[in-house]
Amino acid sequence: MDSPATPHTVATVALVLGAVMVVAIPAATDYLSAWARTYGAVLVYLAFVEYLAVAVGLVRWGVGQLRS
Fold first, then answer.
1. One-character DSSP codes across 8-44
2. Are 61 and 11 a contacting pair, CB within 8 Å?
């Protein structure tokens, strides 16, 4: 039987995923204005802010779990 993932492993995965998401942000900023024209500015910028919040939240949670 497989053992469950340890909290350290989950925190490491969250930290890496969050860091990758943060690094990908500058690549998406070039497309924001085109997406805003196509899909609506409010929708695109709210989605972008939510994406930023999830990325930063993953990094903060991962670091907090690894430090404790």
1. HHHHHHHHHHHHHHHHHHHHHHTTHHHHHHHH-HHHH
2. yes
Gap between the Cα atoms of 12 and 34, Å rounded: 35
The residues, ordered by sequence, that sit 6+ positions from 57 with a Cβ below 8 Å of its Cβ are 18
SS3 61: helix
Each of the 68 residues of the chain gets a pLDDT tens digit; together they read 577 888 899 999 999 999 999 999 998 888 999 999 999 999 999 999 999 999 999 999 999 999 98
Q: What is the pTM of this model?
A: 0.84
